[in-house]
Design goal:
The protein is of the alpha/beta class. The chain folds into two domains: 104 residues, Immunoglobulin-like (Sandwich); 294 residues, 4-Layer Sandwich (Purple Acid Phosphatase, chain A, domain 2), CATH 3.60.21. The strands form three sheets. Strands 6-10-11-12-14-13 form a six-stranded mixed β-sheet. A six-stranded mixed β-sheet has the order 9-8-7-15-16-17. Strands 1, 2, 3, 4 and 5 form a five-stranded antiparallel β-sheet that branches. A hairpin with a 4-residue loop joins strand 13 and strand 14. Helix 1 runs parallel beside helix 10. The protein is globular and about 70 Å long.
Length: 434
């Protein structure tokens, strides 16, 4: 079993960091943390630094303030405050709210200064008790917008959504029945991953209520963070965990964290109309699967204790003994998330132009006409294989967004929207067979 552990560590690289449990009570920041949190461009208040977890009595809520002030948090259900707590002066605040409901609105922030007029300018975030059930076969959307790997570039994402008329100035959904797909890798590299995740988490429900849809896929960086590989986490994001007194991966624990359980419930492979979405792409190892079979395997493997504990050699030995899984079965689970032919990691379709036969087999198997993927970076969103493959991961993350609009002949008009508002039509958009 130690050989398996070494293989796992080598395949993902050094840098496994052990998890730590959340501290109880108010989180006390390190002495140097106010200066670090005050770095230019490091926004930490509101959803930039919010952590919410499910607890026995209700919700564990932790938030940050720019100044050393008393904190205030409220839980609101159907317009009524059901719990309210104040915290001691500090930069990092924590409270346990006694509330149980399908939907809770949190108001949180700093209490007003003595003598200040009006109520404190509290932030608001809606929390749902259960993530939406993942759906892998979707229809009913003739206007589809696609992001590749956005890597925490919150400002760029909202700029592109605004340019497309999908959100208003208050970041509320205005896209009607349009669909937006994020092809995974919301995590890592960028400074505002936490804010981006909370934004997508809320926008998903708003779009659904209006007849639209947000499709969010698992990427390899989601799998990495959930399993404790933090090599690509930005220093500012790491600081959020430090201020809350916990490791970064604990912020997204699939068992307890609101965002963690939401992310862990995301699919890895989705067909929307005749568009097949994946983070890396469907490799020969998975071409014989169906959407449902792949999703069933994903849900089974990600729910196992093994998923978050690959770096724990003692656990691996004990888990294999108790479950009677042999080495091949353990490897199958590891390869599903981290192997080079994993749907989360596969690159060959983008890196070569000689896999047309395999791509045709993928499209036929999954009943699609176009495979849209991220993961493998390109300079600009581009298509290949006669328009059957679209690569959407950018070297400059979230600098562009893909717009697909259904034509009367059944094909898709394909337009790339840039941050400056410019648009480029992809070559095969005029091809009736594309």
């Amino acid at each position: 079993m130690s050989g398996l552990l070494c293989c796992a560590a080598a395949a993902t690289g050094a840098g496994w960091i052990g998890a730590s449990a959340p501290v109880a009570g108010n989180a006390t920041p390190p002495a140097a943390s106010p200066a670090r949190a005050g770095q230019p461009g490091w926004y930490i208040t509101g959803e930039y630094g919010l952590y919410v977890a499910f607890a026995d009595v209700g919700l564990d809520v932790r938030w940050l303030t720019e100044e050393e002030r008393p904190g205030l948090v409220r839980a609101i259900v159907e317009g009524r405050v059901v719990d309210e707590q104040a915290t001691e002066p500090g930069y990092a605040h924590a409270a346990r709210l006694r509330v149980r409901a399908p939907e809770v609105t949190l108001e949180y922030g700093a209490e007003p200064r003595d003598g200040a007029d009006g109520a404190a300018p509290l932030h608001r975030t809606r929390i749902w008790a259960e993530p939406p059930t993942p759906e892998v076969d979707l229809a009913g959307h003739d206007s589809v917008f696609v992001f590749g790997d956005v890597h925490g570039e919150f400002d760029r994402v909202i700029s592109l959504l605004g340019l497309a008329g999908l959100i208003d100035e208050e970041l509320r959904w205005t896209g009607g029945d349009a669909a937006v797909a994020f092809l995974g890798d919301l995590f890592d590299r960028g400074n505002d991953v936490t804010r981006l995740l909370w934004f997508v988490y809320g926008l998903e429900r708003e779009a659904m209520a209006a007849g639209g849809r947000i499709v969010t896929l698992l990427g390899n960086h989601e799998a990495m963070v959930l399993t404790g590989d933090l090599r690509y986490v930005a220093p500012k994001e790491q600081t959020i965990g430090e201020l809350h007194g916990m490791s970064y991966e604990t912020l997204f624990d699939p068992e307890t964290s609101v965002l963690g359980s939401w992310i862990a419930a995301k699919p890895g492979l989705v067909r929307l109309e005749d568009l097949l979405f994946a983070h890396g792409g469907v490799s020969p190892a998975y071409v014989d699967s169906s959407l449902e079979e792949y999703q069933d395997t994903l849900e089974t493997f990600i729910a196992e204790p093994l998923f978050t504990r690959w770096r724990d050699e003692a656990f691996l030995r004990e888990y294999a003994r108790e479950t009677r899984l042999d080495t091949a079965q353990i490897y199958r689970r590891y390869d599903f998330f981290f192997g080079p032919e994993s749907v989360l990691w596969y690159r060959d379709l983008v890196l070569t132009d000689t896999l047309g036969g395999h791509l045709d087999a993928v499209l036929e198997r999954f009943g699609a006409r176009i495979h849209v993927v991220g993961h493998t970076p390109v300079r600009t969103i581009r298509e290949s294989y006669g328009g059957k493959l679209i690569a959407a991961d950018l070297l400059d993350a979230a600098a562009e967004m893909l717009r697909l609009v259904r034509r009367r002949d059944g094909g898709w008009n394909r337009t790339v929207i840039s941050l400056d508002g410019g648009t480029v039509t992809l070559d095969s958009a005029a091809n009736p067979d594309a």
